[in-house]
Recover the amino acids of this structure.
């Protein structure tokens, strides 16, 4: 039976991560907490807006209302990577070779490992940034589509058009597809080889959480009373295929998803604070946490694949030990 070690905090939890095997909890008030031989914390931003886990470097990238981009590492040590004045940093992403991307207003920025920063201007505000898993390429979600840049090279970016407001962006692990979250209750995708569109609709709520399965065959999403899991194993992705619906709970909405690091299992968090683990193959469910105070807003697995750090909109956070 899984056990839960609670950590009650007093602000919306934006992200969780395991750094050097220590669980971290990044809150909207700008404080990053960790359970490191006791409860410790670091006050990093005057309001935190965006986070991204950098697995290659073992650090958490944070962006705040104070215009700063920081990297938080083991022991809570922080390093300032960039500062853009009195502007809000609304999206961050970790990329290859120590590169970091971030967005503010109509601009996306890429900070290379040597500290140089390249600014990428857009006609409308940039709502999300993400790196491709292959090469130094970033995607920027914007109004009416997405823009793909090769920031280390000169040349025109690739424009992917689709009407509407696109609020977040992710590349498939094989680099073949781009998927955006939208202001409407939908996802939209493009097959990069030929620009074909992928419409993923039918959600009763906005999709705020996405997670790719270990080998990139599935994309799990929130925004419905079940985790909606789209198949990406074929060359055309989910086009013409129905998604899996896992962990259906009629009176609750899925607010967060986190796929297992190596197996086809997804942790599913709900608006009442409950967390289930569900297997893709047979939809078998295991309750990991009973309902809590607020909607689950963040989950992450540790490297040993036996613990999940979670956080909620109400600040009730903790660590689930599945193997206990």
């Amino acid at each position: 039976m899984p056990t839960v070690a609670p950590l009650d905090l007093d602000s919306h939890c934006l992200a969780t991560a395991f750094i050097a095997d220590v669980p971290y909890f990044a809150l909207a008030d700008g404080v990053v907490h960790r359970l490191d031989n006791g409860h410790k914390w670091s006050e990093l931003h005057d309001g935190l807006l965006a986070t991204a886990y950098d697995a290659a470097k073992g650090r958490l990238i944070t962006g705040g209302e104070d215009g700063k981009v920081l990297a938080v590492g083991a022991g809570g040590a922080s390093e300032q990577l960039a500062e853009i004045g009195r502007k809000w940093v609304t999206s961050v992403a970790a990329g290859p070779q120590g590169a970091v991307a971030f967005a503010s207003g109509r601009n996306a920025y890429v900070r290379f490992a040597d500290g140089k920063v390249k600014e990428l201007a857009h006609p409308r505000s940039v709502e999300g940034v993400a790196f491709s898993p292959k090469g130094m390429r970033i995607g920027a979600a914007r109004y009416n589509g997405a823009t793909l840049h090769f920031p280390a090279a000169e040349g025109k970016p690739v424009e992917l058009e689709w009407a509407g407001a696109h609020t977040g962006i992710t590349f498939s692990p094989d680099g073949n597809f781009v998927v955006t979250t939208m202001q409407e209750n939908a996802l939209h995708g493009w097959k990069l080889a030929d620009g074909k569109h992928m419409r993923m609709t039918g959600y009763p709520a906005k999709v705020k959480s996405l997670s790719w399965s270990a080998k990139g065959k599935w994309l799990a999403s929130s925004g419905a009373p079940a985790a909606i899991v789209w198949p990406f194993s074929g060359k055309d992705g989910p086009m013409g295929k129905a998604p899996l619906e896992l962990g259906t709970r009629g009176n609750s909405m899925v607010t967060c998803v986190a796929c297992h690091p190596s197996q086809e299992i997804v942790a599913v968090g709900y608006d009442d604070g409950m967390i289930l683990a569900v297997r893709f193959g047979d939809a078998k469910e295991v309750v990991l946490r009973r309902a809590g105070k607020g909607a689950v807003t963040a989950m992450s697995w540790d490297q040993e694949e036996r613990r999940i750090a979670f956080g909620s909109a109400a600040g009730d956070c903790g660590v689930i030990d599945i193997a206990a």
Remarks:
- The mean pLDDT is 96.
- The first strand starts at residue 3 and ends at 8.
- The radius of gyration is 19 Å.
